[in-house]
């Protein structure tokens, strides 16, 4: 069995956060999604995050600040939506909005049998939240 530091089973999302806002992103994910930070390693500048490992709803999420001096440019999020499936989509939805997420697609009962909606976080990443239909 993997320990809490080992997210290497299945597929793990790894986000790059622009403009040195990695610490703010960790704070947001803690407030919005109840994330627990398992570990953090800072760059030599003592500010930017080289690696952070979070647990959200039992799954791992890794992130780092962007390092354009090593990559030749800024990584821009595109074409990815991170999904959280939970027993109470409304509770997770309201917490994310209160933390500063914005609505892409309103949370509602969907024809395929889930309560589902999409949000944007303040760092340019797309999230969906889903769960059982609400009566």
TrEMBL record:
InterPro entries (UniProt xref): Glyas_Bleomycin-R_OHBP_Dase, Glyas_Fos-R_dOase_dom, VOC_core
Under the heading SUPFAM superfamilies, the entry gives: Glyoxalase/Bleomycin resistance protein/Dihydroxybiphenyl dioxygenase (SSF54593)
Q: Could you name the domain of life of the organism this protein comes from?
A: Bacteria
Q: Where is the VOC domain?
A: 11-132
Q: What's this protein's name?
A: Glyoxalase
